[in-house]
Design brief:
Helix content: 10-25%
Structural class: alpha+beta
Order of helices and strands: HEEEHHEEHEEEHHEE
Number of domains: 1
Number of strands: 10
Oligomer: single chain
CATH architecture: 2-Layer Sandwich
Strand order of the largest sheet: 1-2-3-5-4-9-10-8-7-6
Number of helices: 6
CATH class: Alpha Beta
Shape: globular
CATH topology: HIT family, subunit A
Radius of gyration: 16 Å
Largest sheet: 10 strands, antiparallel
C-alpha cells in the first residue's frame, strides 16, 4: 500500500511524547512496565466521548493492525466503551492515510461515543468471494466511493470479536480487500450498539467495515 501519510513533526512523535510523560494527557490507562497499550482522552471534542487507544511502542497504523498488540487494543476499546458509552453505543475507528484524515503516524484507534449512522443507513450492494472464514459484502454508503463489510462466517458479537484474536484475523481479511480496492487510503470502523436491559453494548453481530476508494469525510 502506498497511501500518503501526515508529515512527521520536527520535535518527534506526539503520541510517543505522551506515552513517556513529556506531554500531558488526560489518562484512562497509563503505560506501565509490562503494558503494551495505553488510553487517553482526545483533545478534540467532536463527540461526548473521544478516547485514543495507542500502542506503547511506536508503530504505524498498519503495524498495529497486523500485530497481536491489536488484541490488547481491542480489549481496551470494549472496556472503556462499556465504561463511558454503554447506554448510547460507540464506534471504533482507524484512519489510514490523508484521504481518510489520518493526522498522526503513531498507530491508534479512536473510541467515539454513539453508533455509526453512516453504516446503519448503508445498503448491501453485492457479495464478494469469501475471504477465508469471512463473508465480504460490498455496500453503498453515503459519501463513500467504496465500502465493504467483513464479518466472520460463524456469527459472533461485536464485543466478542473485539475482545479476542478474531479481531486480528478479521483485520487480515480487511487488508486483502484494501489491497484490491483502496490502497491509497481507507478507514476501518466497527459500530457497537447500545446496551439494553438484557445485553451489554456491542451485542450486535460482529463486523468490520472498510471505507475508502477516494477522499473520505471526517470520521465523526
Amino acid at each position: 500500500m502506498s497511501f500518503d501519510l501526515p508529515e512527521f513533526a520536527n520535535d518527534g512523535c506526539v503520541f510517543c511524547s505522551i506515552v513517556v510523560g513529556d506531554t500531558e494527557a488526560s489518562w484512562e490507562v497509563r503505560p506501565t512496565g509490562d503494558s503494551r497499550v495505553a488510553c487517553f482522552h482526545n483533545r478534540l471534542k467532536w463527540s461526548r466521548i473521544m478516547l485514543l487507544v495507542v500502542p506503547v511502542e511506536h508503530m504505524t497504523q498498519e503495524g498495529l493492525w497486523k500485530s497481536d498488540v491489536l488484541v490488547d487494543t481491542g480489549r481496551l476499546i470494549v472496556a472503556f466503551g462499556d465504561k463511558h458509552c454503554g447506554d448510547e453505543g460507540f464506534r471504533a475507528i482507524s484512519n489510514f492515510g490523508l484521504q481518510a484524515h489520518q493526522s498522526q503516524i503513531h498507530g491508534h484507534i479512536h473510541l467515539v461515543s454513539g453508533t455509526s449512522r453512516q453504516i446503519q443507513t448503508g445498503d448491501r450492494k453485492s457479495q464478494h468471494p469469501a475471504s477465508g472464514e469471512f463473508d465480504v459484502n460490498e455496500y453503498e454508503i453515503e459519501e463513500t466511493p467504496f465500502a465493504a463489510r467483513i464479518a466472520p462466517s460463524n456469527p459472533t458479537t461485536q464485543r466478542k470479536m473485539w475482545s479476542t484474536g478474531q479481531l486480528l484475523e478479521t483485520s487480515q481479511a480487511a487488508f486483502e480487500i484494501v489491497e484490491k480496492h483502496s490502497a491509497d487510503g481507507f478507514r476501518l470502523i466497527s459500530s457497537f450498539e447500545p446496551a439494553n436491559s438484557s445485553q451489554p453494548a456491542g451485542s450486535n453481530d460482529a463486523s468490520l467495515f472498510v471505507l475508502g476508494g477516494g477522499q473520505l469525510g471526517l470520521y465523526v
